[in-house]
Design a protein that fits this description.
Blueprint: E1 2-6, H1 10-22, E2 26-31, H2 42-47, E3 50-54, H3 60-67, E4 72-75, H4 82-92, E5 95-98, H5 103-110, H6 113-119, E6 122-124, H7 133-143, E7 147-159, H8 174-182, E8 185-189, E9 192-196, E10 203-206, E11 213-218, H9 226-229, E12 234-243, H10 247-256, E13 265-267, E14 270-272, H11 274-286, E15 293-305, E16 308-319, H12 328-346, E17 353-354, H13 357-360, H14 363-372, E18 378-383
Parallel strand pairs: 1-2, 1-4, 2-3, 4-5, 5-6, 6-17, 7-12
Antiparallel strand pairs: 7-15, 8-9, 10-11, 11-12, 13-14, 15-16, 16-18
Helix pairs in contact: 1-12, 3-4, 4-5
Length: 385
Amino acid sequence: MKVLVFGAGLQGAACAYDLLSMTDAEVTLADYQLGALPRYLGDFERTGRLTRVEVDVREEVPTRRVMEGCDAVLNALPYYYNFDVSRIAVDAGAHCADLGGNTEIVHQQETLDDAARRRGVSVVPDCGLAPGMVNILAADGIARFDEVDSVTLFVGGLPQHPEPPLNYQIVYSLEGALDYYTTLSWVLRDGEPIEVEALSELEDVAFQQPVGTLEAFHTAGGLSTMPWVYRGRVKTMEYKTLRYPGHAVIMKAIRDLGLLDLEPITVEGVRVAPRDVFISVVERVLRKPEGRDLVALKVVATGRKAGRSGRVSYQLLDRYDEAHGISAMSRATAYSLSITGQMQVEGRISTPGVHTAYEVTPAAEYVAELGKRGLDIEIRETWDS
């Protein structure tokens, strides 16, 4: 198996590690600028199974060239590169999967469906944690019912040791998190897609100690295309981000004061976007290189089957990998991408064309693969007698 991983940052490096440690794959790690390797990849480069190459995906010819001969292209770059990487991969005859995160770009990728079918390859967007893992679990929950009343998806990347005032540390892109806090969120209400305000409709979600009770609120992007795929089939569906209590109130005040605005203003003769200033100031405080993170996930679906009402829930708590220095967010996000790519090459995702992860991923096999990596999904079903 020959796999090309785009993006040598936290997610791309962890994706490469999973491929190298769980399979006999030969992996090429590509980015426009390569820095020092994480220590957990060093041995693989020395043995020759890991190769690194500098490629700028904005340049089509070298991008196409590095894809030649690859079985799969796994894209851990920012979402705005997803369409072009998918398009070039289809042309090269390689399977492709990415971390997604922007539903409009997923819809653009869907226009590649005919070309992918002709080439006999699959393109699977939204293969990270959220969207990704959480949607695969939600789809599995929906499939357990004849009629579905509600599906709620909860996900949070959190510090193990929160510090005020935000009780948060950067676990991926701060820019991405702020996008989710400022963009309307699609949900299903009475079976129809509608938009609701980010950071709204707070509720408590309980986890075992020491995590305890977290707060949940609407953010954009987590449902992927589910509101349209399940329109009229599920009454209520929503995705909410998890944080320690008090976070949403502070972030809503910051947003409402205009500090997250993208429209530049003039400050002493200089044009500057408030959000750029905000990021520059708080990133120094919220980026904690020595901080240890955790991922909390919960999916709850309710409905009826054979006339009986029931509830199915999925839960995950995962923590920073001390032995290898891999964050919980990278484990959940990058390993999910790696598993998808392996399933594509092995034929376990066998449908050619463009389909999001929750539409084509065999959930039971996917959960089993997560378990091999210590990401243990707890599944519970309860039914009325």
